[in-house]
Amino acid sequence: MGSSTNGVVGCSSTGAVDKGVDFANYFCTYAFLYHQKEMLCDRVRMDAYYNAIFQNKHHFQGKTVLDVGTGSGILAIWSAQAGARKVYAVEATKMSEHARSLVNANNLQDIVEVIEGSMEEVVLPEKVDVIISEWMGYFLLRESMFDSVICARDRWLKPTGVMYPSHARMWVSPIRSSLVDQRKNDYEGAMDDWYGFLEDTKNSYGVDMSVLTRPFSEEQEKYYLQTSLWNNLHPHQVIGTAAVIKEIDCITATVNDILQVTSSFSSTISMEHTRLCGFAGWFDVHFRGRREDPAQQEIELTTAPSSNNGTHWGQQVFLLHPPVHVDEGSNLNVYFSMNRSKENHRLMEVEFDVKISKPSGKILPPIIKKFYIE
Amino acid sequence: MGSSTNGVVGCSSTGAVDKGVDFANYFCTYAFLYHQKEMLCDRVRMDAYYNAIFQNKHHFQGKTVLDVGTGSGILAIWSAQAGARKVYAVEATKMSEHARSLVNANNLQDIVEVIEGSMEEVVLPEKVDVIISEWMGYFLLRESMFDSVICARDRWLKPTGVMYPSHARMWVSPIRSSLVDQRKNDYEGAMDDWYGFLEDTKNSYGVDMSVLTRPFSEEQEKYYLQTSLWNNLHPHQVIGTAAVIKEIDCITATVNDILQVTSSFSSTISMEHTRLCGFAGWFDVHFRGRREDPAQQEIELTTAPSSNNGTHWGQQVFLLHPPVHVDEGSNLNVYFSMNRSKENHRLMEVEFDVKISKPSGKILPPIIKKFYIE
Fold first, then answer.
1. Any chain A CB within 8 A of the CB of B39?
2. A331 touches chain B (CB under 8 A)
3. Which partner from A23, A61, A85, A255 sits 20 to 30 angstroms from A267, CA to CA?
4. Where does the record place the Protein arginine N-methyltransferase domain (chains A, B) (predicted)?
5. What pTM was computed for the model?
6. What is the rounded distance in angstroms from the CA atom of residue A60 to the CA atom of residue A83?
7. How many Å apart are CA B126 and CA B71, to the nearest integer?
């Protein structure tokens, strides 16, 4: 699931991560059926993988497949139903036991072998023709699970093998959203409350806590204003051109390629008299096969703002305080930078540097904002 | 903070707990000012400790004090203001840095020494006259922080020393609550949804997931029906006599004494024609000093159901499904048992065995229910 562990075998390490801590912080959610069901109920996600597999049976028939992070086992089961000769379904949590009963209940135990363990540690009896995985986190890279897919690819994919999905892209666009007002109000409410608390504590209990005002406000600011939000945006909230800020070819990408994501891009505001309230980040993946062995039917899975095809990923929203009035034709020059958090490599720190030019030619002072994807 | 760690020095171990995992699961919440503020805003809690200290200055004047788990530093500051000669304020998280600035801002740096570290590991220059700590979790023992207070006492309290608080009790009473209907409805809604999901998955995706119905329903049942709830109950919801199920003398208690809590008790229903919807658990602590050196003013801090003196602890509610109709005079013979969870010693597993006798003399079949304090 996208990380190096103390028991790493044969995969480059981005830094030792204690397995117990990784489980307490990350893996444990995936052991719950409720969480698996949530993902299985995402029709856009399910349709994309289902169609990618069954409209490209030539990639599966008689072939060997590795499902990285099989969860409930759904992709492994579909791969077997599409004609795979053998499927290895690797899952780090006890969810693997449920995957195994699901495989048995669907009469696929001769084809699908469920293996409990981390991708970095398991040993397979052979290399595979296909690696399939649903590894994408919010804004693609949150959770850093792709590290484990890269590890699997480097260890177990045949030189002729195919990645499912084959490509991934990260997108950013300027947006408008009333969330910017809500969060600002929440923050200000928390600070009002704090000042009342300071007074009570001084009067009733004789302790002056005003020295904590600054760290408290920083903590609240980080929580209310600087932490990215999950939201399912409507396309009407996208107020300017969206830009691709990262492209990943899953057959060649290295962990180094994804440790840092930086991009300079432009976006033109397409809405008259609106507020730039921040930016939205999302992703898409494609199932194209490989150049020498392409898909017969290319499938796309996108998490872009949509009126009726929202996914459980939503988009990640980075709010700008205060919002900025912009006009149709205003131009944004944006520098985007994303790095892994030092405390937890599965979480991210993001920076947006925004230079706004009005249609008149006037250039506003640069806006530099830091965010946390938690 | 109530646990043995890998670096245990001089304290009996209840089993090795990885420090990193303990931080990820437990300690980390206490590093947030928002969380500290929530506790500092609990007037009942604050008043009790404030009065316990300032109405018993003889215990503090010219004395040495240890504050176990100082958090923001409030108890250490009050101890100094009450005349202590020296206060050691131990805190395992980075909150210690805020405690230190608070001490400095209140001009007590010559008296209060804030030490970042776990109680099991820190080394003090001397033994102390008083150990003060606010260690109580939900239903007293959730979080198992008292382990760390016992460790502190065994290592650092003088033979003549005093514990603040000196005593603690756990209470249980039968209750009525509409939560029992809410949770039941939530559970049934989740199961209805599941069956729809099963059908969709079979029809749209060709996978029969019915083998997961049983584990899914067990998971949902545990979540909705078997996990204790936080609630601030009104005294009107207490429908029968409350019983003390555990008494702790903080000067003599050992970790062994609190590993398991068992009690057989009776409760008589005091409300006519009502439903036994479950049981509530809460606690109280007392500040009585010690027999040879008693408090001048005994203070009580109770978390019993109250119309206007609720605390942030609330009560722990254990719901009975289905609720049972009982009458005034019905008698409950209850066997209560609580043990630490194997996966996480700071969480608990609870069992209630209930035998109901109606006023007519009729005895209902015993009800045996297991619960989780998460």
1. no
2. no
3. A255
4. 186-355
5. 0.92
6. 6
7. 22
CA nearest B176: which of B234, B228, B243? B234
DSSP class of residue B141 equals T
CATH, domain range B19-134: 3.40.50.150
B370, B371, B347: which is closest to B138 by C-alpha? Answer: B347
User: Which of B37, B41, B207 is the closest to A74 by Cβ?
Assistant: B207
Where in chain B are all domains bearing CATH 2.70.160.11?
170-176+229-373
Q: What is the tens place of the pLDDT at every residue in A183-218?
A: 999 999 999 999 999 999 999 999 999 999 999 999
Mutate one of A55, A209, A216 to test the B interface: name it (highest B CB count within 10 A).
A209
The second-level CATH assignment, the architecture, of A170-176+229-373 is Distorted Sandwich (2.70)
**Distance from the first to the final alpha carbon of chain A:** 17
Residues A168, A285 contacting (CB under 8 angstroms): yes
**Beta-sheet pairing, A64-68 with A128-132:** parallel
* 8 A C-beta contact, residue A366 and residue A334: no
Q: What ipTM does this complex have?
A: 0.91
Tell me where in chain B the CATH 3.40.50.150 domain(s) lie. 19-134
Q: Which residues of B touch A46 (CB under 8 A)?
A: 204-205
DSSP H helical ranges for chain A? 19-25, 33-40, 43-54, 74-81, 95-105, 146-156, 179-205, 213-225, 255-259
Interval A72-103: pLDDT, tens: 999 999 999 999 999 999 999 999 999 999 99
Q: Which two tokens stand for residue B13?
A: 């171990």
Three-state secondary structure call for residue B242:
coil
Which of A23, A33, A101 has the CB atom closest to B219's CB atom? A33
- β-partners of residue A367 are A354
